[in-house]
Structures are given as C-alpha cells and as structure tokens.
Specification:
The chain is α+β, with helices and mostly antiparallel strands. Helices cover 34% and strands 24% of the residues. The protein contains 4 helices and 5 strands, in the order E-H-H-H-E-E-E-H-E. A hairpin with a 7-residue loop joins strand 2 and strand 3. The longest helix is centred in the N-terminal third of the chain and has 16 residues. The chain is globular.
Length: 109
Amino acid sequence: MQVEYATVYLEQLCTDQRRAQAELGQHCARKLYTYLDSLKDAPSMEDVPTLGHLHVLTGDRAGQMAFKLDKKMRLVFSVRLPETGVCGLKEREKLVTIICVEYIGNYHD
C-alpha cells in the first residue's frame, strides 16, 4: 500500500528513525516502523498481518484505524482508494490502497 501523511511532522517522524526514537522512545519507535513496514508491504488491508492490536476507531475518530504502540500511544491512520471515478471490477482490483497516517500519540487524554 502507499503511505501518505496528514502533516509534515508526521512524515518526519515516520521517515526519520532517530527522531522517532528521540520523541517516542525506542520501544514505540520500533513498533511504529514494524507496523508501517507491514502496511507498506501489504497490497490491501486484508493482507496486513495480525500484529499488535489493530482496531477500528469510533466516535470522533470514526473511519480511522489504530495500532497500539504501548499502553497509551497509538498509530492512527485512515484507508482509502484513489479517486478514479467509475471503473470496472478488474480496474478497481489494480488500484493501490492509500494509507494516511493521521496521528501518533495518546488520544485518550
């Protein structure tokens, strides 16, 4: 899948391991990169291995999913297909699923 980022800050955190370790700690940074790699390597959400605690969010975050990085920290993302207008089933199967990293942190507070 293709990964996009909601902000420049999130892109930097997800592409610079040193920064991620400094801001999130080694444990969370390691999990972050493991989960991002599994999303990038999977052709679709159905192919994402069952790592960590992947769950669908509700309420204010309806339409998003999250991986648990530790007790409080989450990697929150949304999933979509690119807008292509009307297309047949065969063409739709070839579309790349896009993951957009929306938030990394504790949304429970």
